Structure formats: structure tokens, C-alpha cells
Amino acid sequence: DNFGIQEALQRLHVNKENLGTSTGVEWMETNEEYQTSYSPVNGLAIAKVQSTSEEAYEAVVEKAQEAFKFWRKKPAPFRGEIVRQIGNALRERKEDLGKLVSYEMGKSYQEGLGEVQEMIDICDFAIGLSRQLYGLTMHSERPGHRMYEQWHALGIVGVISAFNFPVAVWSWNTMLAWVCGDVCIWKPSEKAALSALACQHIAAKVFKDNGLPEGISSLVIGNYKVGEYLSHDKRIPLVSATGSTRMGKLVGEAVGSRLGRSLLELGGNNAIIITPNADLDIAIRGALFGAVGTAGQRCTSTRRLIVHDTVYEEVKSRLASAYKNLTIGNPLDENFHVGPLIDKDAVNSYLAAIDKVKAEGGKEVVAGGLMEGEGYESGCYVKPCIFEAENHFQIVQHETFAPILYLMKYSDLDEAIDMHNGVPQGLSSAIMTTNMREAELFLSVAGSDCGIANVNIGTSGAEIGGAFGGEKETGGGRESGSDAWKAYMRRQTNTINYTTELPLAQGIKFHI
Ligand code: UN1
């Protein structure tokens, strides 16, 4: 049984004719080598895609520039209407796309569906936003003058996305960018190019059905080199990049050196503080999903648990028994909780991290290791594991994209907050407590230093309505909800004089 994946691929038009580089419905032959997409579920090749050559990239940017001149003049609510149609097309393809995401990158089918739901949600958000791209009006200090600000479309937005959320993160960026009047060039992770191809088909059909030109939605395929085309290109005013801190620094530096804008959503090292006043049923469940969901491959995954010494032993033993009940296997089969890691490189990083934490003095609570035997032929399935560790361990300071959880003990909440903040990353965080003072301290300026701080829910699974992103090495960018749209527009301050005088600001006198 293949869980209907072949049929889903057909319906999503993921087949041999999809070459890779696209400006919409048009696909470009590039003479570059093909790369094969393998599924970590069973190790089989799914399909081949062709990398984008420098010439093809040039053609894409030229089309995008042309399309921008057209698209920016369309009223924003019209652009919202196009996004509404894309949202509806995603509703129709939710199961198929969820399945492809699950098969291509290994998250559970339920999480694949959840990811497509995030796309649908951001479409709805963007539609409303298309009538709310508000600027402020100001009172001028000069008589007979009016001041206001307006937000204009920025231009071409480059979107570099990661394998772990191969479709949702693209949609957070593009749906907002499109209603803002921008056009987008997407470079998906080369590890999840097929999910991107499927999305490109869905969006391109809507653009075509509405008689809109090529170049509003473009796709380029390849490794970091193709990402470099985007980050070095002066014609791209904004590059939004999701991925490792290492990658983000390269993108940020390249874009910064040409004084472009970058929006970075990079690594996390997310912790949950469990206080003596926690509802432990909720705390255990929140920590469990946070640590093992998506096999620990979310940037919001829970990597550290900082537990008060009075509840430490109970948390440890309850977590250990919960881990015993986890089932590991084919993510398309809903009987399994945990799917594979993305590839063998990820498995090697996971194994190396386990060696490292042991070498640094970590104590095993739940053992890790590679799964072997029937159903695990891809070599990508690993056991979620737990170690008692210390916050200053090198490996604890580092984001390992795998289901490894570090347990730590504290006795005083200020000390716990110091430990919590004592890592280079600053994405997501949580406190488990029913005590108002503890919760408010954690959310205060002296509390969590992360972009996301939760009470009585885990670190992962943010809703699209809030701004998503984090501080420090997470890169400082904010995507998705709230006023994250402002990153995709340029602000213009306008002063209009409707008198016959010409008074100068600051009362300066200048007469001839
Ligand atoms: C990511 O891992 O890059 O909050 C994004 C979450 C999801 C998004 C994660 N909504 O876990």
C-alpha cells in the first residue's frame, strides 16, 4: 500500500514534465544537471528536477521585473481576490499536498495537513490585509500643510525556504508579498523541491485563469549557489530566508553589503521552564509534542527543559514513560507518532550530538539510536531521546535538528530565566505554571528574550495571526501575522502644501 501517494502526485502534476525553473505556467529547460528527490520515508526516488542555470535565473528576474510593473498597479483588494482563489485551490488540494509534504520530508500526515492548513490560514489573513495596508496621517507643524505616509510595493521578493516547512513558510511570505503588490521568486530547499513544484502549479493556474502575466510567481531550483544569485542581486530589494544560522549569516551579509533588506528566520534553541506550580499533565504533553513532533525538525522544537528541583524527578520519569509509548515509522501511516529525519546527513548530526552530550558528561534518560529492520530501510528513522545535561555544554548551546531533549534542573526562577536566555538563539519559549507572578515575570522585559513566549503551551505550533520570528542568532525577522507585512513594502512620507506661502520646517527663515 502506498497510501495513495502516486495518485496524489498525479493530481498535483508532479511528474517528469516538471523541469524546475518556472515563471508561472511556463517551465524552462536549463541544461543544468537534474537532481533527484528521495523520500526519507522509504528511500525511494520520487522524481527528478532540473537546477536553475545562471541564464535561466536571468530570464526569471527579467520576467519578474516586467510583471512587477503591472502587478503593483492593480488595486490591493484585487490582489487579495487572487490570493483568495489560491487559498481555495489549496483547500481542494489539502490532502494531496499534505501527503506529498509528508512523503517528501517525512513529517506525519497529520502535520502535513496542518502545514497546508497554515497556508490556507495565511491566505485568509492576507485577503483581509489587502484592505488594511494602513499608513498614518500626521499633523504638520506648518499651516496649510498636510502630512501622511503611504505604503508602496517594494519590488521582487526572494524567498529562500527550508525543508522542514517546505510549503507553509513560502506562503507566509508570498501571500503577504502579493497583496502588498510585490512579485516573488522562490528558492525552496533542494531537499523538498517537489512540494514547491506542486505549489507553483497551484498558484500559476490561478494567475493564468485570471489572465495575469508570467513572473508574479517564479520558482528557481538548486543548492546554495542559486540562493547566492538572489542574495547578491541588486534587483531584489528583499530576501526572506529561513534556515540555519550559518546560511542566514551568509544571506544577511551578502544582502547587507548591497544595502538590501533581509528578513531572517533562523535557528532556535527553545526551552520550556516547568515550575512547581505547573499543571504537569499539560507540561508533559506540551514538552512531548514540542520535542518529538516533526522528529524535532521544527525551528520551534523544544530542545531544553528547565525543571524545578521539587518536580524534576516526577517530570523525568513521566517523560521517560511517555517516550516508551512513542511509535516510530512511516509518517503516512497514522499509527506512528514519529517519522524519519530528512536524510542521512541529519542522522549523522543526530548521532554526533548524542556522542557529544555523552562526552561532555550528559546522562542518558531515554536512549537514542538508529532504527533498523523492516520499515526502516531508508536509514533515516531515529529514536527520540532524552539526556540530563547542563546549559553550558557546547552541544546544548547548539541547535541539532533532531529529537534530542536536554533536561536541566533549577531552584530559583531568576536562575531558570538566566539559563533559558543563556543560549545564542532566541526564537520560541514557554513557561508551564498556574502562578500568575511566575507567568508575568517570564513575559516581562526581564523574562524570556525570545520572539515568541508562551504560557502553558509548548514552544512549537504558533498560529499565523501573530508575528513569527526571533531575536539574537534567530535573525530578528518577523513573518506571517500582526504587522509583518510592513517588511514587504516601502514607506513613503508625503507632505503637501495647499497654500500660496512656502514656510520652512523648524521655522527657518530664507528670503531673497
Ligand atoms: C519552522 O520550523 O521553520 O510554530 C516554522 C510552528 C510552525 C512553524 C514552524 N507554525 O511550529
TrEMBL record:
CDD domains for the chain: ALDH_F7_AASADH (cd07130)
This protein's UniProt keywords: NAD, Oxidoreductase
Broad enzyme group: oxidoreductase
Cell membrane found in the keyword field: no
GO molecular function: aldehyde dehydrogenase (NAD+) activity
EC number, UniProt record: 1.2.1.3
Entries under InterPro entries matching the protein: Ald_DH/histidinol_DH, Ald_DH_C, Ald_DH_CS_GLU, Ald_DH_N, Aldehyde_DH_dom, ALDH7A1-like
Aldehyde dehydrogenase domain span: 27-493
Enzyme active site: E265
Pfam families: Aldedh
Family label: Belongs to the aldehyde dehydrogenase family.
Subunit structure: Homotetramer.
Protein name: aldehyde dehydrogenase (NAD(+))
Organism this protein belongs to: Anditalea andensis
Lineage, uppermost ranks: Bacteria, Pseudomonadati, Bacteroidota, Cytophagia, Cytophagales
